[in-house]
Amino acid sequence: MRWANLALVLGEIAAGPCSRAAVAASTGLTRAAVSSLVEELLAAGLLTEAGRSAPNGRVGRPGSELRLSQDGPAGLGGEIGVEHLAACVVDLRGEVRSWHRREVGNRGRSPAAVLADLAELLRLAAEEAGLHPAGLALAVPGLVRSAEGMIEGAANLGWAEVPVATELRLALRAAGAPELAALPVEVGNEANLGGLAEFWLAGRPDDFCHLSAEAGIGSAIVIGGQLLRGARGFAGELGHLTVWPDGPRCACGARGCLEQYAGETAVLRAAGLTGVGGDWVALLAERAAGGDREVLAALAGAGTALGIAAAGAVNLLDPQAVVLGGGYAELGEWLLPTMRAELAARVTARPWDDSWLSVSPLGRRGPLLGAAVGVVRRIIADPGAYAGG
Ligand SMILES: [Zn+2]
Q1: How far, in Å, is the centroid of ligand 1 from the Cα of 230?
Q2: How far apart (Å, rounded) are the C-alpha atoms in residues 75 and 354?
Q3: Which of 6, 50, 258, 292 could form a disulfide with 309 if both were Cys (CB 3.0 to 4.6 A apart)?
Q4: Domains assigned to the chain
Q5: For residue 183, is pLDDT > 70?
Q6: Which residues touch 289 (CB under 8 Å, ≥6 apart)?
Q7: Cβ atoms within 10 A of the Cβ of 218, count?
Q8: SS in 3 state form for 232-270?
Q9: Which has more pLDDT, 322 or 54?
């Protein structure tokens, strides 16, 4: 009961700074109970008294304004991309306190080598933020078994059955960061974490689909405010939805998957840019902005395929919004027109409204933000576990 009330009080203050009296009024708890719970949260470093609205200005008066502490426990996030690594720290309010990114081609590298580099970035990010991370969460481009800290398969990295949480702890110890190696480690799929970041930070409705270009094509489906995980945690593989049954062979073995029309390799091929290295999203955006006809046609084609797949998802799930995230967010201007046309033509249950389709403000920062913010959200949801009861 006490743990539940700690969460109730902290949740209220997390929604916006407020006084003890206001917390009592909105939770229905007595003022005395709220005061005692607030003392506990203050002692655990989760809250601060930001302002003093009581006339006499004394600490601990019912009118003092309470806020989440910016010096309290933090969330440490790490990201393994096919072409980059990144690490960040967010404080309890979800504000980014440090962010480090390194461009590095990870395709075909061993997990140990990649995790050694990532451990170094995590150490730097934690050092720069100067906070105490309460947990570490990792965004990876592949199928994961979260509870076991395992990557079941990451085709774009060439990895299978990697105990990534265990190996990351070893790498953190080797990098001289034993305090980080002792943290609980969560492993999540990058597309799912990108979708959750969109839900938590961009004010998305309780039902939406998030489509993102990352290593392949990722998607996250949020239904009733919950990420749709599926029976084994692999839901949302929209990149392998069939767009054309007789289309090109996909890496997954099937033909005509969305990825064969709107994935990185396919779009670059259609744009006549096969084999270019580096930041393909930035390259396409630059060429498209310059009016390159081949690039514009390639992006229009990708938008058509995305619209066909998204229409299937919309007809199936009836979401309130469809969001283009990850790398697609930077290409939205050129993808949206054809995507909208397909949605308008194919969504049946209700007339399609263009305002339902939008571009993520988080873009390629989404997955790492989702990882780090997830850590602090778990503390806010269950402060008793953090404070030790
Ligand atoms: Zn496929």
Answers
A1: 18
A2: 36
A3: 258
A4: 2-68 (1.10.10.10), 73-192+367-387 (3.30.420.40), 203-360 (3.30.420.40)
A5: yes
A6: none
A7: 28
A8: CCCCCCHHHCECCCCCCECCCCCECECHHHHCHHHHHHH
A9: 322
